[in-house]
Design goal:
By secondary structure, the protein is α/β, with parallel strands linked by helices. Helix content is about 65%, strand content about 10%. Among the domains are: about 20-180 and about 320-345, ABC transporter type 1, transmembrane domain (ABC transporter transmembrane region fold); about 180-300, ABC transporter type 1, transmembrane domain (ABC transporter transmembrane region fold, Up-down Bundle), CATH 1.20.1560.10; about 445-520, P-loop containing nucleotide triphosphate hydrolases (Rossmann fold). The two termini are about 75 Å apart. It has a six-stranded mixed sheet.
Length: about 625
């Protein structure tokens, strides 16, 4: 018999669940059972154990009749001891088989979720960058954790519970009808008297629990809003103390009333359950007594006792099986959510046959490239340029013009919508992904460090790197002086996402990590953005030697860096609107001139232009474009 407040709280579907019921198709069921197929031998053993344990759990109820008739009433001590020992032995055997079944069931469930987690993780790793920018991160994690954990519960609890309860109920009904069909019919008639009020009381309590949870959420929301630093300040500044107190008091009062109703619903539920669970045995004793006294002298007291015991064994299975629909719908919905992710196509895949460049030099070319996250909304339009080996190109433009999107097409974080991008003369879509991405090093504006030591973050780029190689990379990145001052040196912990370090320190470690990777093409995507001038200077000192000796692309860096570029591309509204050197572009009167003058607050027709030229040169060493 289910206890109040137990699984009945979840024994009913919410309105949302009713509205979003999954469509159960043969294809869906086939797909689910495909995960069970590799473990069919273990499943057969589980099924056998379920049958044995279910039947054996009913045997003590049957043996109770023998104990009463052949032991107690017949005053036969030997028979009494024998049947008691058999009953104990059967109970022990059923429990041992139950342990074996539980182990096998858990083993199967764990291995299936192991397979599913690995498959899901591999699939998500292959998804393009747009998948992660479009989908909610919490939803992705939920599919990987809660939903797949739910699969384990379905296999280890729901499926086996359905089988076990169905077997127990079937066996109990067969034994009851074999013993006495009249009492069996009476017992069947009594079952609804127990189930109907149980369902109604359970639904009432479940509704109250939901309302109580909603009220609790409201209270927590009030507390989070008004007792936070910012929230409490706002309350004080607008003199809303009394208003917020009254709002909290009202919600608290509703919570108290709901809790009282919920607890009392549980008490009335117990009264109903205990009353109706007693009606069945009383009716069996009454009908059985009438049969013994007037119609069927062969019926014994033990027989009636067996019927009462078997009836008690039926309550739980019947009540559980009534919730099959709810459990089934939830299970199918969970599998549907998981399969939705598995069915998402992998947009970025290796072409066949896989191609690798014979001679790597890091040259890049965009051939009339267009790109859009959505087919009808292009972010980049007809981008066409070439970056030769050893050269440096700077990409500048207003915020949101598509600069970062442009460079993300090179390592195939996204694929072009039109045109093509080539690396070392080969279309990037034909190159091996590992080869392509291994040949490119990107230092982005938002540096990401794993929660570990500096050493571990560096080794992520090159696991076999020696101590000397790491030190050399750190020196080139202008971060080794900082590391030397730390008590643990390279083993200094950086904290979650590198939060124990400053922005400049994180960025320089990121540069060292890319240097350790030793790529053919360096991409610096706003690597000095939002940093103070001192940190910016140190990073710039690390970048300058790289762009002078390696093929590189720079996005919106300091003016001194842009001046060093072999070519500057000006991107606006997804198009290259200007290209050339700084000297060619600054006086052209276009977008570059506008950006330049906005940076230095100087108008082209400034009467003091000659005097400000010297200022521009000085500022060029400390300002971004």
């Amino acid at each position: 018999m289910p206890a109040p407040g137990g699984h009945m709280r979840n024994g009913f579907l919410t309105e949302e669940e009713k509205a979003n019921r999954p469509k159960v198709t043969p294809e869906l069921l086939k797909r689910i059972f495909a995960y069970l197929k590799p473990y069919w031998k273990q499943l057969i053993l589980v099924f056998g154990c379920l049958i044995l344990s279910s039947v054996m759990n009913l045997m003590p109820s049957v043996l109770t009749g023998r104990i009463i008739d052949e032991g107690l009433i017949a005053r036969n001590l030997g028979a009494l001891i024998f049947y008691i020992l058999v009953s104990l032995g059967v109970t022990l055997g059923a429990n041992l088989i139950g342990v074996a079944e539980s182990y096998l069931n858990t083993w199967i469930a764990q291995h299936i979720t192991f397979d599913m987690r690995n498959s899901m993780y591999r699939h998500l790793q292959q998804m393009s960058q747009s998948f992660f920018t479009t989908n909610n991160q919490g939803d992705i994690i939920t599919r990987m954790t809660s939903d797949i954990d739910g699969v384990q519960r379905v296999i280890s609890n729901t499926f086996t519970s359905i089988l076990s309860n169905a077997i127990t109920l079937t066996a109990a009904v067969i034994l009851m009808f074999r013993s006495n069909w009249i009492l069996a019919v009476v017992g069947m008639m009594v079952v609804p008297l127990f189930i109907i009020p149980t369902r109604r009381a359970g639904k009432t309590r479940w509704t109250l629990t939901r309302e109580s949870q909603e009220c609790s959420d409201e209270i927590n929301g009030i507390l989070n809003e008004t007792l936070s630093v910012s929230g409490q300040l706002l309350v004080k500044l607008f003199c809303k103390e009394e208003y917020e107190y009254q709002r909290y008091t009202d919600a608290n009062e509703r919570m108290i009333n709901l809790n009282i109703r919920e607890n009392m619903a549980g008490r009335w539920f117990l009264v109903v359950v205990h009353t109706f669970s007693s009606i069945g045995p009383m009716l069996l004793y009454l009908v059985g007594g009438i049969l013994i006294m007037r119609y069927d002298s062969s019926l014994s007291v033990g027989d009636i006792t067996v019927m009462v015991a078997l009836l008690g064994k039926m309550y739980m299975p019947v009540n559980s099986l009534l919730n099959i629909q709810v459990e089934w719908i939830r299970s199918m919905a969970m599998f549907t959510r998981i399969f939705e992710y598995f069915d998402m196509p992998v947009a970025i895949t290796n072409a066949k046959p896989i191609v690798r460049a014979r001679q790597k030099d890091g040259s890049v070319a965009f051939h009339h490239v267009s790109f859009g996250y959505e087919p009808d909304r292009l972010i980049l339009k007809d981008i066409d340029f070439r970056l030769n080996a050893g050269d440096c190109i700077a990409v500048v433009g207003p915020s949101g013009s598509g600069k970062s999107t442009l460079v993300n097409l090179i390592p195939r974080l996204y694929d072009v919508t039109g045109g093509k991008v080539t690396f070392d003369g080969i279309d990037v879509r034909k190159l091996d992904l590992a080869f392509l991405r291994g040949s490119i090093g990107i230092v982005s504006q938002e540096t990401y460090l794993f929660n570990g030591s500096i050493r571990e973050n560096l080794l992520y780029a090159k696991p076999e790197a020696t101590e000397e190689e790491m030190i050399e990379a750190c020196k080139k990145a202008n971060i080794y002086d900082f590391i030397e001052k730390q008590e643990l040196g390279l083993d200094t912990m950086v904290g979650n996402r590198g939060l124990k370090l400053s922005g400049g320190e994180k960025q320089r470690i990121s540069i060292a990590r890319v240097l350790l990777k030793d790529p053919d093409l360096f991409i610096f995507d706003e690597a000095t953005s939002a940093l103070d001038s001192i940190s910016e200077k140190k990073i710039q000192d690390a970048i300058d030697p790289i762009i002078n000796s390696r093929t590189s692309i720079l996005i919106a860096h300091r003016l001194s860096t842009i001046l060093a570029a072999d070519q500057i591309l000006v991107v606006k509204d997804g198009c290259i609107v200007e290209r050339g050197t700084h000297e060619e572009l600054v006086g052209a009167g276009g977008t570059y001139t506008e950006l330049y003058e906005t940076q230095f607050k100087v108008s082209r027709d400034d009467p003091n232009k000659d005097e400000t030229d010297d200022l521009k040169v000085q500022l060029a060493h400390s300002c971004d474009l």
